Amino acid sequence: MRIAGIDIGTNTILMTIADYDGNDLTIIRDEHSLARLGQDLNKTGIISEQAISRAVKILENYKAICENLKVEYINAAGTSALRDANNSSEVLKVLSTSLNNNIKVLSGSEEAKISFLGTIEDDHESMVVDIGGGSTEIIHGKETTIYNHISIQMGAVRLAEKYLLPHPPEPNNIQSAIKSVRHHLDSVKFGCNDCILYAVAGTPTTLAAISLGLKDYEREKVHLYKLNLHKINQLVDLLFKTKLEDIIENFGVNPMRADVISAGSLILKLVIEKLGKDSVIVSANGLRFGLIKSVLKNFS
Question: What domains sit in the chain, N to C, each tagged with a CATH number?
Answer without folding.
Answer: 2-108 (3.30.420.40), 121-283 (3.30.420.150)
